[in-house]
């Protein structure tokens, strides 16, 4: 990623970044050390790369369509989903949902896994919109997905099965 650094004596503390014609312009105070500026630039690069990845994933597949198909097939179309999107800041968990708003966020890592694993996580999060816990009735809803056990096994074999109590946002 090409970077252009613009230092200013008028700027005292803040550092900002913008993309202009494919070049990342960094606006920084003239007095900042190169070491500190390098760390900040690396953070900006990571942030811009995640934004780019999220945009690519959004155009690659429509999670709303996927969720609506799964909703119809496994929940009779009765779940109201506020929004569903990939999240680039979910590194420890695969999905989360806000039960009040009906918003579902799916980890970007699932885009590189088999489709049936991603679908399992979507079904899992959709089930939370009915049962916001991990009770027996919740797992009955999830087990309606025909590849649920296989997907859980896949995630466990990869060493990626999340802590079940951490994936709910109420």
From TrEMBL:
Record-linked InterPro entries: UTP_pyrophosphatase-like, YgjP-like_metallopeptidase
Domain of life: Bacteria
Alphabetized Gene3D superfamilies for the sequence: Metalloproteases ('zincins'), catalytic domain
One matching Pfam family: YgjP-like
Protein's UniProt name: YgjP-like metallopeptidase domain-containing protein
Boundaries of every YgjP-like metallopeptidase domain copy: 86-145
Cross-referenced CDD domains: M48_yhfN_like
């Amino acid at each position: 990623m090409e970077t252009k650094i613009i230092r200013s004596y008028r700027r005292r503390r803040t550092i900002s970044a913008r993309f202009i014609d494919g070049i990342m312009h960094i606006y920084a105070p003239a007095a900042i050390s190169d070491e500190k500026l390098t760390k900040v630039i690396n953070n900006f690069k990571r942030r811009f790369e995640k934004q780019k990845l999220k945009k690519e994933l959004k155009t690659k597949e429509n999670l709303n369509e996927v969720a609506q198909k799964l909703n119809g097939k496994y929940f009779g179309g009765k779940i109201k989903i506020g929004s569903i999107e990939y999240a680039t800041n979910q590194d420890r968990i695969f999905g989360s949902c806000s039960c009040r708003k009906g918003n579902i966020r799916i980890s970007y890592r699932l885009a590189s896994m088999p489709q049936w694993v991603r679908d399992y996580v979507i079904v899992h999060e959709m089930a939370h919109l009915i049962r916001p816990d991990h009770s027996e009735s919740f797992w009955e809803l999830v087990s309606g997905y025909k590849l649920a056990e296989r997907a859980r096994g896949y995630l466990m074999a990869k060493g990626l099965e999340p802590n079940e109590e951490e994936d709910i946002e109420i």
